[in-house]
Amino acid sequence: MNFFxxxxxxxxxxxxxxxxxxxxxxxxxxxAANHAPSAGNFxxxxxxxxxxxxxxxxxxxxxxxxxxxxxxxxxxxFCMNPSRCxxxxxxxxxxxxxxxxxxxxxxxxxxxxxxxxxxGAFTAEAVAGILHCPAGVVPIAILPIGYAGEEPERxxxxxxxxxxxxxx
Length: 168
Fold this sequence. Notes:
Blueprint: H1 3-9, H2 23-34, E1 45-50, H3 53-62, H4 68-71, E2 74-80, H5 90-111, E3 115-116, H6 124-131, E4 138-146, H7 160-163
Antiparallel strand pairs: 1-2, 2-4, 3-4
């Protein structure tokens, strides 16, 4: 699949089949995330891999009951780590690094025929506690990954004329 097919095919899935993600696929996704651009190449983020049922249940609770996280066989939690960044303000660049890496992982999953759903609604302190994050490492996004258990209806997108503006 070429890049533009991956971008067009990708959509948020909130129901997963009872089928695991192969170790090689997970490694490919993580390697793609590792190739994401990074401010100053400081790579001011961390990725936590969650596969255990108990931790997935805890993540579901920390995300206000988004139970599709429990259905997905693996979730990647992207955290900013401002202590790795030497630019000011480090939190801004670390946040950007984490979100770009998550985007690369999401697109890599799609390219491999897997599905995902970006989750941003959660209690960061609870997720950090579940993962035993060191002080200063803050969860930014959760990416459940698995084989789709549904093909959701395509959501409409804004027209380019409404979205794109010419700078003056």
